[in-house]
Amino acid sequence: MSQRLILFSRYPTAGRSKTRLIPALGPEGAADLQRQLTEWTVFTAHRWQARSPQTEVLIATSGGTPEDWQQWLGAVEVQPQAEGDLGDRLHQAFQAAQQAGKNRTVIIGCDCPSITPDHLTAAFQALETADVVLGPATDGGYWLIGLRQPQARLFQDIDWGSDRVLAQTLQAAQAADLQVAQLEPLSDLDRPEDLDLWQPQPQLSVIITTLNEAANLPHTLASIGDAPVETLVVDGGSQDETVAIAKTWGAKVIPSPAGRGRQFNQGVAAAHGSLLLFLHGDTRLPPQFFNHVVQTLQSPKVVAGAFQLQIDSTDWRLRWVERGVRWRSRWLQQPYGDQALFLRRERWRAIGGFSTGPLLEDYRLVRQLRRQGRIAIAPAAVTTSARRWQKRGVLQTTLLNQLILLGHHCGLSDQRLANWYHH
């Protein structure tokens, strides 16, 4: 089965984007709303694509160059819209999909903020039996149309922009003897009275680094649950079932050379969220983690955040380790990577991302962040594997960690410190 999801969108240019909203928002405000809605729709599409990796996602663009779009939205596939009215452009998009070998194609706009991954799943499932799937809009149009093959009659003699679009399309489908499936009605955001439909949505990408984490990864992914996030697993060359498990759970898998800093950087390059959460493959997130991230980053003085640490062991000595971590994180503002660091994408970009040496990538990142503002600790704990302490011993592991930090500040090479860590 070959499928394509196409997002129709216009480049956010003042005076040319969301023109019907200019009286209410002004040219710049209308363009900014276009930008926000497009980013949210792209984010939603890529969350859904993780569930359906065989489906191609591309943006049918109006305005801007491909380079403009990719600089704005990252690694996205773009295709300029054809010439003509909306019907011509839709029909030619379906024709291009058929020529590319796609036997199910769905098109959505970027002005319906209520679209979810479940809606997209329902649309493609409907095309298993129906010739046409439509998502009715409350203004008389439609927010989604899907076809198994191009149907020119559906786009002819339609009063585009009117409240008759859906009715005329259904009449054309009936005349062509096409079987139609309809999804639930949703509202587009086209007019000033529609503005209450939109509240800027936080877009969170959870980036997980793995290397032979088959035993722990299912628990890590299960802790994400159904939170509205994009999940990426950046794998450093696992030889076990890690990659297969990640795909089974619907995560997007990114291959990478091994090295946690390098893997995290690769993940950010493929992510679409405006907020980034960095998670180790053996660490589980707490309930309501999404809300904790959003609330923690709301303060303008906070440049990044992390969670409290809980170690998955009944060993009483590790309770003392947890207390030490709590003190270090709150009073020194120095959480480490196993506490699931999170921050805004623009902040990550401003500091240049993670270092790519063999260790201390999280320590260096946090030190840079502390120079720029406060690192807040969320009122919930991640749960991380106790294997490091179990392998070497609680006291030995704690002393080794402190020795590595001391060696780093004394100017010892990362490679030498890494040799200490791994032996």
TrEMBL record:
Residues 205-330 form the Glycosyltransferase 2-like domain. Keywords: Cell membrane, Glycosyltransferase, Membrane, Transferase. Its main location: membrane. One of its GO terms (molecular function) is glycosyltransferase activity. It is found in: Cell membrane. NCBIfam families: glyco_like_cofC, glyco_like_mftF. Belongs to the glycosyltransferase 2 family. CrtQ subfamily. This is 4,4'-diaponeurosporenoate glycosyltransferase.
